[in-house]
Design goal:
CATH class: Alpha Beta
Number of strands: 12
Number of domains: 1
Radius of gyration: 25 Å
Shape: globular
CATH architecture: 3-Layer(aba) Sandwich
Low-confidence stretches: 1-6, 8-34
Number of helices: 13
Structural class: alpha/beta
Oligomer: single chain
Length: about 350
């Protein structure tokens, strides 16, 4: 057998090392190319339970998939207003989005859990949304190209804040300029009570209150605290008039393109994030009242009996809009409305 010289051995070793490095680089490139990277936008602040739990979800997804799936979370409207982000989601320019009361113009039945004086607690809402009513709503969203994750996120029950006077009865709402979400149903509610609703997204809320474009607004206690609305609103009138929440969504095409094993991982951690966020919100809203009082807000209990008496025609209108099947699923949980 021919013996290799020391120089030949060194050359062969260098060639082996160079070849090995090239193979490693190629493998690394293939792994990087196989990674899936999605963007997830939301309008809630960086320190909100929504943003915190979604970032936690993204970290867990990346860890369990060994980096195959990365979800970059952009809170505080960094990718645009809610309307902008919803449009991006529909066009698959952004793969995932967490939205609040913004889906109504596109999928009207998404508004149903927020009908005024319908549910008594968040637990009641989620029992309905985790069941038949939620299945119906999610199917309607899917038909419009939006995949909605099964577990909803909480926001809580709404109250009224104002800069001009407290709301003690329905008469105090007459003529009041009130910010409301973009949904037609919420606009109709305030109009039915004699107020003058003005639609603005959550990202615009502080500004329109500060500039006194509106006199008041509607939100859960936690949002009033997180957005520092106590700086621009004086009175807090406790009404519990409707519930609102958040829905984690994905562009249907983007979702269906994911491998089934990655879908399962994302679903698993999305469920966990939603359940944890519900507990966060429950505590946030429970603690917020005392904090808002300490910030100088003047708090009163409103008499909502007059609110309810004004809503018979309102319920009749929205029963026609949502359709008999959806309404029957709702009343199966709530009892007869109107």
């Amino acid at each position: 057998m021919r013996r290799l010289s020391a120089g030949t051995k060194a050359f062969s070793r260098r060639r082996f090392l160079i070849g090995g490095a090239a193979i490693t680089m190629m493998a690394s490139h293939r792994a990087q190319a196989a990674d899936i990277r999605y963007r997830l936008g939301l309008s809630q602040p960086e320190d909100s339970p929504n943003a915190i739990r979604l970032k936690e979800m993204a970290e867990n997804v990346r860890g369990e998939t060994n980096g195959r799936m990365q979800i970059d979370v952009y809170p505080a409207g960094k990718l645009g207003s809610d309307n902008t982000m919803l449009a991006m989601l529909q066009k698959n320019e952004m793969e995932m989005y967490m939205g609040g009361n913004v889906f109504g113009p596109l999928v009207p039945v998404t508004e149903m859990p927020g009908l005024p004086f319908t549910f008594k607690s968040s637990t009641d809402v989620f029992t309905a949304l985790d069941g038949d009513l939620g299945d119906y709503v999610r199917a309607e969203m899917m038909a419009r190209g939006i995949y909605a994750f099964r577990r909803g996120f909480d926001n809580g029950f709404h109250h009224l804040t104002t800069s001009t006077k407290p709301i003690r009865s329905v008469d105090d709402l007459v003529g009041m300029k009130s910010r409301t979400p973009v949904q037609k149903m919420t606009v109709d509610f305030f109009e039915s009570l004699g107020a003058k609703p003005m639609t603005f997204t959550l990202s615009e809320l502080y500004r329109v209150c500060k500039e006194k474009i509106v006199d008041g607004q509607t939100d859960p206690l936690g949002i009033v605290l997180l957005l520092k609305l106590y700086e621009v609103q004086t009175y807090l009138s406790l009404t519990n008039h409707w519930w609102s929440g958040f829905t984690l969504t994905a562009n249907a095409q983007a979702w269906q393109a994911l491998p089934p094993d990655i879908q399962a991982v994302v679903e698993k951690h999305a469920d966990a994030a939603a359940l944890a966020q519900r507990k966060d919100i429950d505590k946030l809203n429970a603690d917020a009242l005392g904090v808002l009082r300490s910030k100088g807000m003047v708090v009163n209990e409103a008499d909502t009996s007059g609110f309810r008496k004004s809503l018979a025609a309102f319920y009749a209108r929205w029963r026609e809009i949502y359709g008999p099947k959806a309404w029957a699923l709702l009343e199966a949980r709530t009892g007869r409305l109107g």
